[in-house]
Amino acid sequence: MPTSSLNALRSYGWDEAYEHAFAEHQAAGLLPARVALVDRGQATVVTATGSVRATWSAHAGQSPLPCTGDWVAITDTPQPELVAVLPRRTAILRSSASRTSRAQVLAANVDTAVVVESLAKPISAGRIERMLALAWESGAIPVVVLTKADLAEGSVDDVREEVAALALDVDVLVTSVATGEGLDILAALLTGTIVLLGPSGAGKSSLGNALLGSQQLATGEVRASDGKGRHTTVHRELLPLPNGGVLIDTPGLRAVGLHDTEDGIQQVFAEIEELARQCRFTDCQHANEPGCAVRVAIEAGNLSPRRLDSYRKLQRESAWAASRDDARLRAEREKHRKAITQHLRATYGFREQQS
Questions:
Q1: What are the angstrom distances between the C-alpha of 46 and each of 6, 9, 73, 238?
Q2: Strand ranges inside the chain, DSSP E
Q3: Which residues sit in the known binding site?
Q4: 278-312, pLDDT tens digit by residue?
Q5: What is the pLDDT of residues 308-317, one digit of tens each?
Q6: How remote is the C-alpha of 230 from its chain's centroid?
Q7: Which residues does the annotation place in the binding site for GTP?
Q8: Which of 85, 113, 132 is the last residue in one of the domains?
Q9: Which cofactor does it need (predicted)?
């Protein structure tokens, strides 16, 4: 591939590792591209020469299905076809909104996951913990951004300290698109492929426009009655940032179901994990067992009961999703085995009739 073409793709995150992974596709005459938008069974992909619309066959057994942020192989034809998805380095996953055991990929190959929470209303500690678990589990580096500082009631510093206590080993920044507060610091901190995660009305699209330097993302008013906003972003879309890197905006997330996020939960609640290692019993449930270091920390005021309750809730949810996924895989394997058995029986029966 010409150097000029490589440079065009590098601005979207293409590197030597992706080039190596693409080698067999290049040998087959396919072209590399990055998925910017998926809708109506088609994808807008960015190639070395610009954006094109690509299709893929729903009957081709495509696995995984393409998602915003994916690197893919497409045909070099007037109507490009998406043939393969390159292995993902990271993926933001949540339980499917259909309540099946399958995970929904929100964004792929993300380097920085920005958890957005508005200061215009009381923060949701549980939601921040949940989003951080999602981010850590993906393999991306999380950052918490508190938006709308100009609309905050009470002390912004107090809220920031409260959030910092939830977001261990995570940068927590205070910003305001209206005044410009914190935007330069945020822009300098973000690198690579960045995804914005948060509920409607948190200011994700306004923050995204500030980072993009133009009004490319639709924004909407927030209802005064409940502080919630409309879903002005209806698709996950990848856009280039003026100083390098790319941004993925996501629709507001009303519900974020965890999907087998044990490692992410351990990272979010690292202080509880550390205390648990000091408990007398390795299977301590942190209830009434003697020698429980977690209960001692709560009684001493060093750990809040809410924090432990949140930890337990997310653990239960993650374990349940993992067990459902295991059950689904077992059922699919059994279905496949039965189909093979039925086919063999039909084949043998036909042969016996012919003999």
A1: 12, 8, 11, 10
A2: 31-39, 42-47, 50-55, 71-74, 82-85, 91-95, 103-108, 112-118, 141-147, 171-174, 193-197, 237-240, 246-249
A3: 147-150, 198-206, 279, 284, 286, 292
A4: 999 999 999 989 999 999 999 999 999 999 999 99
A5: 999 999 999 8
A6: 21
A7: 147-150, 198-206
A8: 85
A9: Zn(2+)
Cβ-in-10-Å burial (0-12, 13-18, 19+) of 59 comes to exposed
Number of structural domains (the chain) is 2
Residues 181 and 32 both lie in one domain: no
* Residue 275, in any domain of the structure: no
The verdict on 164 and 241 lying in the same domain is yes
Claim to verify: residue 173 and residue 66 sit in the same structural domain: no
Inter-residue contact 43 to 54 (CB < 8 Å)? yes
Measure the CA dihedral 313/253/143/141, to 10°. Answer: 80
> Do 218 and 233 form a contact (C-beta atoms < 8 A)?
yes
Both tokens of 209, joined, read: 């426009």
Q: 80 is in which domain, residue-wise? A: 3-85
Annotated binding residues for Zn(2+): 279, 284, 286, 292
Final residue before a domain boundary, out of 207, 231, 249:
249
User: Token digits for 207?
Assistant: 């923050």
Distance, CA of 250 to CA of 352 (rounded, Å): 59
Q: Kindly report the pTM of this predicted structure.
A: 0.82
